[in-house]
Amino acid sequence: MEELVQQIEQLKQEINEYQSVSAELTEAFRIKYLGTKGIVKNIMGEMKNVPNDRKKEFGQILNEFKVFAESKYEFLKESTNGSTKASATIDWSLPGDPVGVGSRHPLSLVRNQIVSIFKRLGFAVAEGPEIEDDWHNFGAMNLPEDHPARDMQDTFYIHKDPSWLLRTHTSSVQARVMEKQKPPIRVICPGRVYRNETVSARAHCFFHQVEGLYIDEHVSFADLKQTLYFFVQEMFGKDVKVRFRPSYFPFTEPSAEMDISCLICGGEGCNVCKHTGWVEILGSGMVHPKVLENFGIDPNKYTGFAFGMGVERIAQLKYQVNDLRLYSQNDIRFLKQFTGAV
Questions:
Q1: Average pLDDT, stretch 128-156?
Q2: Can you name the residues that pair with 124 across neighbouring β-strands?
Q3: pLDDT tens digits, 178-196
Q4: Which residues contact 152 (CB under 8 A, 6 or more apart)?
Q5: Is 167 in a helix, a strand, or coil?
Q6: CB of 47 within 8 A of CB of 65?
């Protein structure tokens, strides 16, 4: 029996050193060691010659030898099958797969275009924090705590006394600019803002704005109108029609909302423009004297205008997007449509 055990050890060493680089060699291994007339089966046949008192011991040795040979075969089969499959399916002479090129988000495209247009008019870009205090967001903009207009800008408060909140408009950036800089001031303020609104196809709890501010001597409403006329024609084309409607904002007086002819129906009337032929795109007006006084700017010497627009609304008209939620859902099918607009 000792001779048989020694033979098994020699066979295990032989099996361990066996190498295969093809399916044919792997099959030859199977036939030699694991076939119906193979070495493993012949060794197993020696069990009948083992004394009864040692059958249990020798049976364990034989089972280990069989498992060892089968494991080696599985290893050889897996390695040779993988190499055969790889060599059969991969043509190394072919060029590599193209690397996908991303695109800018549609809101980034529109924001950058808005910024570019106003830069050509001499406006600088100003930015500020998204977490703002009550004074810069409301108080400085002529919105005291008991002002009913605050209800239109219901927002998310971080904590109160003192109040800190997620800004509701980028007017807070204008406030910080007027706090540090004296006229002449000519800035635009792009950024994300937040309001506690129900998410739907027409509204979201966050959106993006671009606001503008121009303060200097002898600034008039005519300057405001010509600035916005230029913007609309550069953004939407020379044929778009424009109208101003009287409105109310606490931080401007007089105030007006600006509409353009609906680009979806050409002014004929549709669901987007509520069958009026006009779509509101921004609010504007002359800076309220109280706002100027809040920052030590003499309202008898200086005047100014301000305006604010939602980037989503401009993008909706420019690209005819019918659901505001598409901008923030990260749907690759939606975003791929803007690849050519990079």
A1: 84
A2: 187
A3: 999 999 999 999 999 999 8
A4: none
A5: coil
A6: no
Token pair, residue 25, equals 């060699």
| pLDDT tens digits for range 29-66 | 888 888 888 888 888 887 777 777 777 887 888 888 88
Assigned CATH class of 106-341: alpha beta
Q: How many helices (H) and strands (E) does the chain have?
A: 11, 10
Dist. CA 229–CA 234, nearest whole Å: 9
CA distances, 161 to each of 44, 158, 164, 302, 320 (Å): 87, 10, 8, 34, 44
Average pLDDT over all residues of the chain: 87
- C-alpha to C-alpha distance for 329 and 326, rounded to whole angstroms: 5
Beta bridge partners of 335: none
Write out the two tokens for 153: 């800008």
Mind giving me the DSSP string for 176-215? HHHHH-PSSEEEEEEEEEE-----SSS--SEEEEEEEEEE
Q: What is the DSSP string of 115-166?
A: HHHHHTTTPEE----SEEEHHHHTGGGT--TT-GGGGGG---EEETTTTEEE
Q: What is the predicted pLDDT for the residue at 290?
A: 95
More confident residue, 202 or 15: 15
Which pLDDT belongs to residue 86? 47
* 138 phi-psi bin (left φ>0, alpha ψ -120 to 50, beta other): alpha
- Which residue carries 């993008």 as its tokens? 315
Q: Judge whether 253 is annotated as a binding position.
A: yes
Q: How far apart are CA 153 and CA 172, in angstroms?
A: 13
Return the number of other C-beta atoms located less than 10 Å from residue 14's C-beta: 12
Q: Quick one: tokens of 142? A: 């002529």
pLDDT tens digits along 203-253 = 788 999 999 999 999 999 999 999 999 999 999 988 889 999 999 999 999
Domain map (residue ranges) of the chain: 2-89, 106-341
Q: What whole-number distance in Å separates Cα of residue 104 and Cα of residue 148?
A: 39
